[in-house]
UniProtKB/TrEMBL annotation:
Catalytic activity line of the entry: [protein]-peptidylproline (omega=180) = [protein]-peptidylproline (omega=0)
Protein origin, superkingdom: Bacteria
Keyword Disulfide bond: no
Family to which this protein belongs: Belongs to the FKBP-type PPIase family.
Biological role: Also involved in hydrogenase metallocenter assembly, probably by participating in the nickel insertion step. This function in hydrogenase biosynthesis requires chaperone activity and the presence of the metal-binding domain, but not PPIase activity.
Localization, UniProt: Cytoplasm
Protein name stated in the entry: Peptidyl-prolyl cis-trans isomerase
Keywords per UniProt: Chaperone, Cytoplasm, Isomerase, Rotamase
Gene Ontology molecular functions: peptidyl-prolyl cis-trans isomerase activity
Stored InterPro entries: PPIase_dom_sf, PPIase_FKBP_dom
Main location: cytoplasm
Gene3D superfamilies: 3.10.50.40
Enzyme Commission identifier(s): 5.2.1.8
Length: 161
């Protein structure tokens, strides 16, 4: 069975920076799961996994526009400090999570006051040429419910409360 639209794909990954240093990895943990062809995965990864099968391993270096996006200049927004998640005390340069209309977004704190913070809404890895080592761990037909919801359920996927 190969990766194609409306299939649930599970994979392990190791993300490396421009120097080959590991930034993150899920090796030895549950794989990530996503519903292929439903805008649930970075285009640079999804395109490379198309047609692959369980056990396939590949190393890809997609264009930054197809991973975390290009850097948007002057992408500073002011938000209430209480909307920043991930730490109790904030300092410039720290990564934070904020909720947006499109879901959670990782941002960088630029300046912080008592009640308000200026954040850079670019993802901290935006504009960088990164290398992903991928291994397909599972491929299966999506359920009708997963297709209706637009995302994978179960291990590595979305969990409903």
């Amino acid at each position: 069975m190969t990766v194609q639209d409306n299939m649930v794909v599970q994979f392990h990954y190791t993300l490396k920076d421009e120097n080959g240093d590991v930034l993150e990895s899920n090796l030895g943990q549950d794989p990530i799961a996503y519903l292929h062809g439903n805008d649930n995965m970075m285009p640079g990864i999804e395109n490379e996994l198309e047609g692959k099968a369980v056990g396939d391993k590949l190393t890809v270096t997609p264009d930054p526009a197809d991973t975390y996006g290009e850097v948007i200049e002057d992408a500073i927004q002011r938000v209430p400090v209480k909307h920043l998640m991930g730490a109790k005390v904030w300092k410039p340069g720290m990564a934070a999570i904020v909720h947006t209309d499109q879901g959670q977004r990782q941002v960088t704190v630029v300046k912080v006051g008592k009640f308000m913070a200026d954040i850079d809404i670019n993802h901290p890895l935006a504009g960088r040429t990164l290398t992903f080592e991928l291994e397909v761990a599972g491929v299966r037909e999506a359920t009708d419910e997963e297709i209706a919801h637009g995302h994978a359920h179960g291990v590595g996927g979305h969990h409903h409360d």
